[in-house]
Design a protein that fits this description.
single chain, six-stranded antiparallel beta sheet, rod-shaped, Beta-Lactamase, 31 helices, alpha+beta, Rhopdopsin 7-helix transmembrane proteins, about 850 residues
Amino acid sequence: MHDIIVSLNIFMLPPLITLLTSIVVAGIAIFKGKLKKENILFALFCLWYALLTPNFLGHFIIKDVNTILKMERSIHTLYVFIPFIGVLFYHTVLNIKRTYLEIVTFVISAIFAILVHTPYYITGLLTYPWGHIARGGIVFQIFGVYAFSVLVYGIVISILQLKQEKNELVRLKIKYIILALNLIGIFTVCNVPAMLGYNFYPLSNLMFIPLLFLGYGILRYRLMDIQSVLHITFIWLCISSVIIIPNVIIFNLLYPFFKSMDKSLLFFLLGIWFAINYLYFIKVQPLIDQLFNRRKYNLKKVESQFINDIALLKDLHLLLNELSYILKRTLLIKNVEIFIKAEDKENELYSLNGDSTIIDEQVRDYFLKNPWVIEKKLIENKPQYESVRNILLPWFEQLSAEYIIPLEHNEFIGIIVLSERANLKALSNDEIEFLQNIKSASSIAIANSLMYHSLTNLKNNLEALVMQRTEQLQKKNEQMEFELKLAKTVQKTLLPSVLPANNQLFAAVYFRPYMEVSGDFFLLEQLDDTHYLIGIVDVSGHGIPSALLTSMIKTEIENLSRLYSSTSAICTQLNRKLTPILQESGFYFTLFLGIIDFVNMELLYTNCGHTDIYVITLNDTVYPLTTDSLFIGADENINYPECLFELNTKDRIILYSDGITETRAKSGHLYGNERFTNILVASREFAPQDQIDIIIKDLENFIQSEEGVIRDDVTLCVIEIGEPVAVENYLKKAITLYKKKNYNEALSILNSISTVPLTASYNYLKAKLLMKNKHYEEAKKAILLALKENPDHKEFNYLFGQICFALKDYQTALDTFADLSMMQPYKKSDEFVEIIKKKV
């Protein structure tokens, strides 16, 4: 161990550095660059060029010449294969296939490996102050020519490949290879003087320099321009030497005094020396580094300023313009485009100048998972991008891009597209780092701006939507108001335009819908001269739907009242027709229907689930009218009964809806039937309209005092019964109309007093009218009533025979006419007898 320490010499450093460099670079190529053929050959190339360094190191440790020569021959046995390994490496890196040349170089190298152990390869050992070197024989000199020829071959094929290659990244890699090979050739040639006996240090011990250049060109993903590398390295060495030169000068000046100097003083001086050097490395060297890395510091300054500026920019367009400007100015990019994801379309990107493009989902996912600077040249050449090359390269071509930088912040935002630089150089590592930092800050700012933009748009859209909806609602309200007014107008036509006010009947009405239109309506219709149809309907619900139903209900009641004279029949048929419609629509209605007969002074009525209708007599007695039946729409098979109530002059029939009695106070109790009947009796002495005014006033007082509220339609109708009809006047009128041949009107009058017993002559008149209107069955009934009173009356019997003949009861007609001829000759009878005989 002592011998080794004693043998240490400064000239051992270059071969030691070369050995360590080759091992480190080879290790990086194998372990970091994956076990690919190119990486393995590059590692062997580095190790083989460093094979001679153990010899130089051994010269300073081993003193025995024979041992040194034996070690030299052993290492050269492997070293002579370096041309073969070089050819394999050149062909692989440059993608050249010349297998024959590889076989030839292997065979030649194998021959030299055999000849290494002869006296013709190494003849002895030369000694110099810096160490030893083997003296080469004739075979070694031939090997040198052979190895140099292979080196020149490597340079030539690299230059040829450089001329053909279009990809800038590959071209730069080839430039590094050419530089490294030239340096290797120069350093190798510089070994010749020493081997020929001249005292010249072999520069092959500095082989770590070309190996570093070659490793940088082969292993780096992004390559710096060679001129920049050489220039920066030279400047740094020059500036950093400022501390080395003064140290060397001071050491040489003080060295003679070190041996005679006191140890304490020497220690003190060394402490000062160390402090001065330490101060230099703390204060001066950072300034040198800053000068050396001025570009990096400038980029940091721009980055810091940009981050401060974008904090104030909320508008997306201003932010993107600022980002584009910074990238163009700082990195000398010819063209910068920023594409942002469309808000409403997941796969569409748009730029500030209006361009848009569709991004494939696979590309978008790749950008999201790899949010760093993506370089076209790396995609084209690096094996790790092989799986995505076919999907990414079309994007670079489409966008004319050299670099694409994905923007993401919890989600994909967009991309920054950079074209080539104005100086055509690739981006440096510092510039890539600058881009990455700018991208990170921009992503957050753009995401915030998009969110601010979205919120602004949302606010504006909401305001516009509110205005639009308000306008629509206003139009709907106007339309609804128009429809309600139209419905109200239509509904008014359903109500009697003029209330009856004659000797038989006088009516007054209060009608107030809960909304514009009502689900209530009342009936006051004269059926004929002696009969009135009265009634009130209350449809469930309020508003237009209920009002629409009232129109249909009124029409049906009017049609049925022409067919039936019975309220039971009218209500039963009405229920059967409307129940399916009502059940389908979810509605129902209550109905009170009555027919007033002013001949017999009777009210025939049916109550279909409506509140009890009241009759108030002249002596203030109140009679409720009910038949305990269900509302219309419950069951279409219901048969509604009818009841008869005898009327007197001055009786009042009160038609009303439950909107009055069910008016509710705040406390919860109702206006109610009791209060209603009490006010009816109390106001009985007043005229019908005055009575209504009193009742409504009482209702309003209840609402005001009890804080009540009306939640339904309100209808109130007071009908006062007048004098009964004088039958004699109607009979005279019927005779007059008969003489004027107004048979229908005459028959209508007789029908209106059908409940009154008629004399034989009026029954005879009725039968004749029915006969003329071809109502033969009813005519037969009427004439039989006349014959019952006067069976031998010639005209009565003759009319009877005519009616039987019309009914095709020929036998009865023949018998009647025959009997009539037997009683007394009657020419008309004889003629009918002959006609009947012919018929029979």
